[in-house]
Amino acid sequence: ELGDYSHYMQKEIFEQPQALSNTLEMISGAGQLQPGIFGAEAADIFPQVDSVLIIACGTSSYAGLTAKYWIEQVAGIACNVEIASEYRYRQSVANPKQLVVVISQSGETADTLAALHHAKAQGHTYTLAICNVPESAIVRETALRFITRAGPEIGVASTKAFTTQLSALFLLTLLLAKANHRLSEDDEKAYLDELRHLPIAVDKVLALEPSIQAWSNHFANKHHALFLGRGRHYPIALEGALKLKEISYIHAEAYPAGELKHGPLALVDSEMPVVVVAPNDEMLEKLKANMQEVSARGGQLYVFADGGSAVKPSDGVHVLQMPEHYGLLSPVLHVVALQLLSYHVALVKGTDVDKPRNLAKSVTVE
Ligand code: M6R
Predict the structure, then answer these.
(1) Which Gene Ontology CC terms are recorded (predicted)?
(2) Distance from CA of residue 48 to its chain's centroid?
């Protein structure tokens, strides 16, 4: 089943262009989005929604956190993200006009399912599941649903499920923006074109594998790594750090780069590689100032730049040049590069990539 691949994780990373085009098949020829792709009731529910609450665990929660940036910017609707194991036991204030979105690859994660039950018990009726398994428990219990078509994900480290979740959440963003009268027809067409082009853009990132692999030796003998990002790429830094710790057992932490001075800068020395997600977006200049703070303390920077980022390699500054900047959807491209980084570091370390110690693919107990 693995074909030419050495591990399921590697296969699943490389399946992402196909997983994305399968998930986005319904927009292949569409000039306009229809809410029905989220279920028959979506056309009635979306115009009523006054805020969004996203609930998930692990990687799925980072998809939610990325979507928070999209939903607030594009749809102009307040969005919060909660970890399911916290939300389910927390005394929260329910708002019946809030759309509760649960995200889960498996659809069987105990905490996410319990959090959904908790939301419903509190009176939430606008519920939506984004899930990769159509017959799973979570999907059966929500008013609305969107099934990602990543195909079976075997590797414990989530890869193609994440990027397809992001594509689903971008569709949700556009539909909420439409319902909120915040999306012009021209913008809708432009965003749909970008989504349709996404598989090709991901292919170009996959082609960078040899250069990313070349960095793996710099990480494999380290005990710690720091990941930095800002704005919609901060959740991508979180996901990159999770991938690295999960499969290579290197302690990795992610911070929004603006937080450096508030503590983590004290950790920086030449023994702790600092990975920076540095696309050419509106936060780039701020991020460059943060990189300077790291360099000034002898830190080693590993920068994932893209078209126009103009970060120059120098002593202690390693730069991977990604393709053209991809605007709002750029997180989808940058995470693929970080997946490849963690995969290759794990290969050098010789860990069990597909079945990391102590972890299960689906966490069906609390
Ligand atoms: O199936 P789910 O999306 O609900 O799973 C949630 C997490 O357990 C999962 O994303 C976990 O963090 C992965 N192992 C990350 O790679």
Answers:
(1) cytosol
(2) 27
Q: Which residue has the tokens 């979740």?
A: 165
Q: Is 59 touching ligand 1 by the criterion CB < 6 Å?
A: yes
Which residue has 């290969």 as its token pair? 347
Dist. CA 359–CA 131, nearest whole Å: 20
**Residue 29 confidence class, pLDDT cut points 50, 70, 90:** confident
Q: Is the CB of 109 under 6 A from ligand 1?
A: yes
Return the structure tokens found at 294: 């790291």
Rounded to an integer, what distance in angstroms lies between the CA atom of residue 17 and that of residue 203?
Answer: 6
| Atom of ligand 1 minimally distant from the CA of 109 | 4
Ligand 1: distance of its center to the CA of 142 in Å? 20
Catalytic residue among 120, 204, 222, 361: 361
Torsion of CA 66, 68, 72, 78, to 10 degrees: 180
Cβ count near 296 (within 10 Å): 10
List strands edge to edge, sheet with 78-83: 78-83, 51-56, 98-104, 127-131, 144-147
For the chain, what percent of residues have pLDDT higher than 70? 100
3-state SS, residue 2: coil
Single-letter code of the amino acid located at 29: G
What is the per-residue pLDDT for 108? 97
Q: What is the DSSP string of 247-270?
A: HH--EEEEEEGGGGGGTGGGG-ST
Positive or negative: CA dihedral 320, 323, 325, 331: negative
ipTM over 0.95? The verdict is: yes
The reply to whether 361 belongs to the active site is: yes
Verdict on whether the full-model pTM lies above 0.90: yes
